[in-house]
Amino acid sequence: MPEATETRILLADDHALVRRGVRLILEGEPDLTVVAEAGDGAEAIEAARAHRPDLAILDIAMPRMTGLQAARELARSQPETRILILTMYDNEQYFFEALAAGASGYVLKSVADRDLVEACRATMRGEPFLYPGAVNALIRDYLGRLQEGESIPGRPITSREEEILKLVAEGHSSQQIADLLVISVKTVERHRANLLQKLGLKDRLELARYAIRVGLIEP
Asked: Model pTM?
């Protein structure tokens, strides 16, 4: 496969034997390469800084810093690195904590030989990977919230912000957007600043990527 499609992986687990087995699964694939290993969460953070992997695969139960703690730190400091949790725990609480920590997927070690490769590829495509029990947990949680009268989570941005996001992502200048929407340039700039802050993004390029991800524009 072309080198451009190769996924560089950091693997963190406190059991060397587990790391060896997982590495064998991953490196049997031409598009997946383990570039660094770590024996605990703190080592994983250091290795991620040094190697800038595309994907970090983290065990939950590790000394010094758990995989969930490491995931939170990685999501904050290296948002470009995707995160997968690989664990022995078929546990709803850990699953929800993993999603909240910024993980894109949750894979059980008991079926790693079946699921891990696809989970890596799905994560790199920007798709979540959930094992069947996790899907059921999500649905149960969602239905429970509805029964308790909680509303469905609203969109993070307003309709006007969405309009401006789409136009920014399409490459229009602030002046062009102001003319199209019949508002002032100052108002456009304020909306754009609000968008960056709300979505936790840095610049126009990241706004464009977000717009593609949520289907506002085509890639």
From this structure: 0.64
